[in-house]
Amino acid sequence: VPELPEVEVVRRGLETHAAGRRIDRVQVFHERAVRRHEGGPADFEAALRGLRIDHLRRRGKYLWFALDSGDAILAHLGMSGQFRIGAARTHPEILVPPADPQDGEQRHPHLRIRFTFDDAGPLLDFLDQRTFGGMQFVPGGAELPEPIAHIALDPLDPAFDRDATVARIRAKHTEIKRALLDQTVVSGVGNIYADESLWRAKVHYQRPTDRMTRPVAGSVLDAATQVMIEALDAGGTSFDELYVNVNGESGYFDRSLHAYGQEGRPCERCGTLIRREAFMNRSSFFCPHCQRAPR
DNA sequence: CCTGCCGCCTGCGCGC
DNA sequence: TGCGCGCAGGCGGCAG
Is the C-beta atom of A78 closer than 7 angstroms to strand C? Predict the structure, then answer.
């Protein structure tokens, strides 16, 4: 599941392998992948032809291709989206026989969008098993695409205001994990890093935000920042083949998880068994001793 | 304005 | 053996 560290790994890979290249052809193989694009697949393909990718930018879990025209391709990986560079050549094992023998071309079953460049270099594929991810062309969006103007800065953004975010958290009438997952409060945190942050800060996921002191709210935010930096250094968290970098390689931060997915294992601080509870239609992992439930 | 829930998706593992 | 179900969970939209 791609959260900030995983998306940043992908952004860096695209900066290396896609920036500076001019798009020759775009092929959309599944219309849900461009459902946010007003004009649909044909318009998406036509809008990008001939444009050059200048830079790759990111805010939270969103990333976008800044184009030489001043426009942008805004992308979100959703639950299972991947960008792969030249995968057809470097990973033949993921290929399947063509559905139609006349087709000739071999394609991965989850291939949704393919970019071909005018330099005859490796192509760029967007694969997405569950189709929660996708792309849209945003005219004039190179600096900041309008559709994500409401997304808060993430903790790795140089302009991130830590104290303002603490104030924002404390001003909300909700539980701390909901606030952490609210991308308009702080962006980039998903279920995995929310649980890891709360474990590090020794705070229960249901603590009311409006009854948290500034130091406690700050410690949760600082833990989130720290855990995401460490995960980025490890290349992200990979549980399976659903998250890999642009070269198809896994990250190894899963070995450093203390709470998420650790149900029944002893807490590394106190030995109490990590518990899993349903919360917000997902799972919350926590140490019932270190992270005491609010009254 | 704010909070919180639903529906969108596919594949896998489990129990019967 | 096969099938139905729960689970994985980010996000937009919308109800209250």
Answer: yes
